[in-house]
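Researcher: We plan to redesign the surface later, but first we want a full-length starting point. Tokens attached.
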């Protein structure tokens, strides 16, 4: 991967928000949303994580050992808000990194951050940035157009027929979220058939495809639902559940009938394309108000 050379004063003091970009497509949509609203975000990629499509747009790609360089960039560009977008699949091994001075100085605090589940790590990172007078904001705050609304978003279905399976999938997703494992679960015809772990939603859906091919699952289930829900007590400033056209296509391939996401707390990426894909594949998308339902 070719890394752009870190710059200083990128927007001549005009930028005040930075995107710390991990993997996946979410950073692309966040950047596009900010630009369309007239802002000029600074994009800082995480080395070996940032989506290759974003590298050419990045103002810098930094390792976990360059905490000093990170804050140098943020200060030089008058950044007072940061948004974390995209996933991190690898925890840093500080023994193998070349560390700048601030990283070495802050090592005891940084080591405390990297231990724990995803939710606790993200919360501690947010707290750490705020000690440097930089506010960490969430996708829901700076890109409200991505937030899922309540009720039917795409397709048609019978609540009487689908709701028992929806509630089962939602309960399973919330249960694993409570122990900070994953955000998604699949239920069909009265039972939970898959839970998301560290491999992510796509891999879980592929697992269901394999189980169906192997005859472990009904080839034609009456009602199969993918539920993606925010983890209980999760910090909404990072890693909100998200779906997009790819999620819909994979759900259809897995033999499912619908996708349920938590309204007000989940993201729909490329909404128009996602809805169009769902309707073409006869998949419904439903925004579930968990708090109102419990």
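Model: Full-length starting sequence:
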């Amino acid at each position: 991967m070719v890394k752009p050379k870190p710059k200083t004063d990128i927007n001549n003091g005009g930028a005040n928000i930075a995107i710390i970009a991990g993997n996946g497509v979410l950073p692309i949509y966040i950047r596009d949303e900010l630009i369309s609203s007239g802002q000029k975000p600074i994009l800082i990629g995480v080395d070996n994580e940032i989506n290759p499509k974003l590298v050419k747009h990045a103002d810098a790609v930094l390792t976990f050992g360059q905490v000093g360089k990170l804050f140098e960039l943020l200060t030089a560009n008058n950044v007072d808000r940061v948004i974390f977008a995209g996933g991190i699949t690898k925890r840093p091994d500080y023994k193998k990194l070349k560390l700048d001075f601030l990283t070495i100085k802050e090592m005891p605090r940084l080591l405390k951050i990297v231990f724990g589940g995803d939710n606790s790590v993200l919360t501690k990172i947010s707290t750490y940035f705020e000690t440097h007078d930089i506010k960490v904001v969430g996708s829901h705050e700076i890109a409200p157009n991505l937030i899922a609304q309540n009720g039917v978003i795409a397709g048609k279905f019978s609540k009487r027929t689908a709701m028992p399976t929806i509630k089962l999938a939602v309960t399973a997703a919330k249960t694993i979220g409570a122990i900070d494992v994953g955000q998604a679960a699949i239920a069909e015809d009265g039972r939970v058939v898959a839970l998301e772990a560290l491999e992510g939603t796509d891999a879980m859906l592929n697992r269901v495809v394999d189980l169906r091919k192997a005859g472990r699952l009904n080839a034609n289930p009456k009602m199969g639902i993918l539920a993606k829900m925010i983890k209980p007590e999760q910090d909404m400033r990072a890693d909100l559940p998200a779906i997009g056209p790819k999620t819909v296509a994979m759900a259809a391939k897995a033999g499912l009938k619908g996708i349920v996401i938590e309204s007000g707390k989940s993201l729909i990426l490329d909404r128009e394309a996602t809805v169009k894909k769902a309707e073409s594949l006869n998949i419904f998308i439903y925004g579930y108000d968990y708090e109102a339902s419990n």
